[in-house]
Amino acid sequence: MLINAHNLFHRIGERTILDLPKFQLAQGEHTLLLGPSGSGKTTLINILTGLVEPSSGDVFVDGRSMTGVGPAARDALRRDKIGLVFQTLRLVSALTVRENLALAQTIALGRSDRPGVDALIASVGLAHRADARPRELSQGESQRAAIARALCTRPALLIADEPTSALDDTNAQSMIDLLLSNAEASGSTLLIATHDQRIRGRFARAFELKPLAVDA
Amino acid sequence: MTLAGLSVAYLRDRALNTGLNILLLTLAVATMVILVLFSAQLGERFERDARGIDLVVGAKGSPLQLILSSVYHVDVPTGNIPLDTLEVLRRDPTVAAAIPLALGDNFRGFRIVGTEPGLIDNYRGRLAAGRNWKAAGEAVIGAEVARRTGAGLGQKFLGSHGLVAEGGQKHDEHPFQVVGVLAASGTVLDRLILTSVDSVWDVHGIHHQEHEVGHDGTGHEHAEDHGHEHEADAANASVRKQTAEPEVTAILVRYNSALAAVRLPAFINRQTALQAAVPAVETTRLLALLGVGLDAVRAFAALLLLSGCLSIFVALYTALRQREADMAMLRVMGATPAAIFAQVISEGLLLAAAGAIFGLLLGHSVVAVAAASFEQLKEVGLNAWRFESAEAWIVLVTLAAGAIAALLPALRVFGVDIAKTLAHTP
Questions:
Q1: Domain final residue pick, B248, B277, B306
Q2: Between A and B, how many CB-CB pairs are < 8 A?
Q3: How far is B153 from B131, CA to CA, in rounded Å?
Q4: Same-domain pairing of B179 and B252
Q5: What sections of B193-278 are H helices per DSSP?
Q6: Per-residue 3-state assignment (H helix, E strand, C coil) for B137-157
Q7: How far is B357 from B228, CA to CA, in rounded Å?
Q8: What are the pLDDT digits (tens) for A17-36?
Q9: Which uninterrupted H or E stretch holds B34?
Q10: Other C-beta atoms lying within 10 Å of the C-beta of residue B63
């Protein structure tokens, strides 16, 4: 199992944000994570990627524990196994697209591979924008750059939070094409959190989070 | 692309801000470098040039002026003293050496000093080429004189009246000829043109033949050489009659015993025309006077450095507020908080390093330009491209200041909550 999570429970103050007995994801099974706003999609992603420590429960990523190990170990596990694409947070502002990818590789792998970076940039259709700064890119372009950035370390798991919600129909579809084909190429398993109905049909597997009942 | 590369990218991204930060630090470092160069080289010069000279005897006036003019060769002399004084001093058993100086002329700003070879020995100078002066009109030039004027052995030159290069009537009838060039000694010798006292007298038309009897056997090697000189110049005899008795400008004295320090200055100062000045006392007084000025400049430099630090602090603080998303992004990429902390500190260090490098360059360049443009500084013999160990301290202090200025902003890194930043980033 790439992800193996049990008895996840998270609350902030008196409010329960997430209550999930079991979540599993097998290698190669690209999965959509569905659910209405407030159902805890983002919280689940934050917990799976170690950005947030759950109130209780455990998470294993590729056999290594993400919970109860301290922030440094969570950082290391995320660096080794997970690529992340967010809706808003995409690239480091001062660097060009190419430099962003090179930096991501250096941080995760200790070295960067220029031909690999260029090939990846070309595969997301940004070869002509490789030397552009993030602020010079359009929404769609920077989202594609973010995908390339997440994939350039060849992570076992690629998690994307609402990668298409800011895009129009055509761009949303091509974004999914891009995610699927590049994940295939780099051997990554996709987990995509979305409430975007337009991409539902593209994935064989979906996991639906139910909105929590209002606390009694 | 590394995190250090990222620092450079951030600095380039806010180029104007970076430039201003570096400029402030550059000015601070340059001010300190100039200060260090001046005080170190001045202090060292003072010490080295006064070596072996316990007392200077000269005309009444300011003792500081006497020391400056006859030991450091930077001010005008207080006047002249009778040559007899030299004899009096040499007869004194507590005096180890007495070296006469006759000043008054220059060649392109380098002073022509009528003296005895004892002056060279005093500074442990040695000839790099040629020989010591013997005949009238022969001169030995210091290493720097040779370098700056391009004069070599056999070169003839005319002295000009006065002690600075500008103006001054040329002494056409009495050209000097270079017979020796001194090796660089790092002392005032480097900037002097040495000749015999008699040659200086000749140039000024001072009749000294009758006087030779008085100080024969005191080490002057000129007695025979002067016979024909004077016959050739006989036509000018009337002019000479009007001129003064043989005099020297000052006499440098080295003691034989500690007793001299107690007795000799008081004895000299009792003579109506004479005064005795102790170089050690006068330079201490001068450095104390300069010290107040140096302290003011030092405080100014510290203020500049402080403002440079503050500007780095403000720049990084505001930059990091805008970079919370970036920091979260770096964390998402897998960079540890410690690595990002180090990255921010390195921005401060890079600014400080650039300021230090440019400051060193600017400081030395300013000194070089100043030394080349101002006669007074040329006379002090300032070397703009010599590096002092204190400059290493300046660099270290500047780097530390850069790191400290970056410290507080960098600590924000540890407070970054990626999940929260993600939720709040538009």
A1: B277
A2: 80
A3: 10
A4: yes
A5: 197-203, 209-212, 226-232, 237-241, 258-270
A6: CEEEECHHHHHHHCCCCCCEE
A7: 62
A8: 888 898 999 998 999 998 88
A9: helix B15-49
A10: 20
Task: Please report, for residues A95, B69, B107, B133, B200, the alpha-carbon distance to residue B171 in angstroms, rounded to integers and kept in the order given.
Answer: 72, 22, 10, 19, 11
**Mean pLDDT, all residues of chain A:** 88
Whether B308 is in a domain gets the answer yes
Last residue of a domain, one of B277, B304, B322: B277
What's the DSSP call for residue B218? S
B41 & B59 share domain: no
Per the structure, the count of domains in chain B is 2
The tens digit of pLDDT for each residue in B32-42 reads: 999 888 888 87
Report the residue of chain A nearest B3, measured CA to CA.
Answer: A103
Q: If you compute the radius of gyration of chain A from its CA atoms, what whole number of angstroms results?
A: 17
Residues of chain B with C-beta less than 8 angstroms from the C-beta of A90: 329
Contact A89 B10 (CB under 8 A): no
Which candidate from A79, A89, A103 shows the least CB-CB separation from B425? A89
Is residue B197 domain-resident? yes
CA distance B9 to chain A (A): 6
Cβ–Cβ contact A46 with B under 8 A = yes
Residues spanned by the domain of B204? 55-277
One domain for residues B234 and B336: no
pTM (global) more than 0.90: no
ipTM of the complex: 0.88
Whether residues A108 and B418 touch (CB distance < 8 A) is answered with no
Residue B193 has pLDDT above 90, yes or no: yes
The verdict on A93 touching B (C-beta cutoff 8 Å) is: yes
The answer on B305 and B255 residing in a single domain is no
Domain ranges of chain A: 31-208
Same domain, B253 and B360: no
Predicted local distance difference test score (pLDDT) of residue B263: 87
Report the percent of chain B where pLDDT is more than 90: 39
Shared domain check, B294 and B264: no
**Residue B387 resides in a domain:** yes
- Spatial separation of the C-alpha atoms in residues A129 and A122, rounded to whole Å: 9
**pLDDT above 50 for B223:** no
Residues B268, B209 share a domain: yes
User: Beta A56-61 vs A31-34: how paired, if at all?
Assistant: unpaired
The CATH number given to A31-208 is 3.40.50.300
Share of chain B above pLDDT 70, in %: 88
Cβ separation of A107 and B330 shorter than 8 Å?
A: yes
Q: Do B85 and B274 meet the contact criterion of CB atoms below 8 Å apart? A: yes
**Contacts of B204 by beta carbon, 8 Å cutoff, 6+ apart:** B104, B171, B243
Asked if residue B50 belongs to a domain, the reply is: no
B236 with B102, same domain? yes
